[in-house]
Amino acid sequence: MPKKILIVTHGFYPEQSPRAFRATELAKEFFRQGHEVSVMAPSRENITNFLKEFPISFIDMGVQKWKIPTLKRKNSVLNLINRILNRLLPWLFEFPMMELFFMIRNAFKKTNQSFDVVISVAFPYPIHWGVASIWAKYKSKNKSTLWIADCGDPYCLQENDSMKPPFYFRWIEKWFMRKADYICVPTSDSYLGYFPEFHAKLRVIPQGFRFQDIKKSSTIEDGIVRFGYGGTFIPGMRDPSAFLAYLTSLEGSIKFEFHIYTMQVNLINPYLFDHRIILHEPISRAELLKEFSTFQFLVNFSNKGKSQTPSKLIDYGIIEKPILQIDSQFIDINAVDAFLQRNYDGALQLDNISDYQIENVVSKFLNLTEFE
Predict the structure, then answer these.
(1) pLDDT at position 341, please?
(2) CATH fold for domain 4-210+357-369
(3) How far separated are the first and last CA of the chain, in Å rounded?
(4) Which top CATH class is 212-353?
């Protein structure tokens, strides 16, 4: 029987981010399977053609207005103040993303619709907090009988930021988790990033991809070993510096090209003196995977701990390329040299790729609704 499904999210088409991709692909596949889909998200441009192809109901929460104040950059002192504000305000108060909390409350109050299930997608976590703020103890008072909180990464117990959230956010995280019926996480190891008292609510539902949408090209074979990475870096944790230092120390006679697609150019710029390190601006996921399919192998920089798994690994698995796993703290030179010599015996192994097919992912969400 068709369901009425509401997806509450910050990221959505045409934004390029893992969480935007998550929400967009869920909405598209629910629609393909005949369900009535609504998406509640902030205003966005260039969505008209998408809504023609997938005529879902888009509940516009309005334009985000909160911004971190920026002082005019005239000297090093003001620049320092700007950097401090940009670091401390999100850390201490989830500012400016906390605006989403109030936007969601207002949007729910204005809608007269009811749903069979609400799926909130975080990051950022004020998405979950906004839903929790209007979620009553008695289900008959809610817009839906079922709320699924979908978490890409942990919040309070995360391991891959240099500063953990302040202690008071633990109260907020536990408050919303007590209200949610289910908490979805991407891998079986993700439970390590969540408070033990809520483990019974955790359900593993990985990132979903429509495999038939992936366009691949032939591998380029011209004597140059090409490999690539696309995504973000974290200084000192998911950090390319040691890997790049080793690559640029290799003799010029070793023919390779390391293609990097990222906005974090500061970590890459010191190594661009070597023409074999090639920096690109980010491109769409579809374009990136088509480009990566022409390479010999791909690179992944491992996270700290096991609770966070990059979704890009599934992308890499879909296009069937060997994966060189790099630990930023300890570079296995022998493994790097082997890959440069086209020996992929040490490649990272990915199991059960079919689990990531969007059809199977959506089925896991729908299965949760059968218990209500």
Answers:
(1) 95
(2) Rossmann fold (3.40.50)
(3) 14
(4) alpha beta
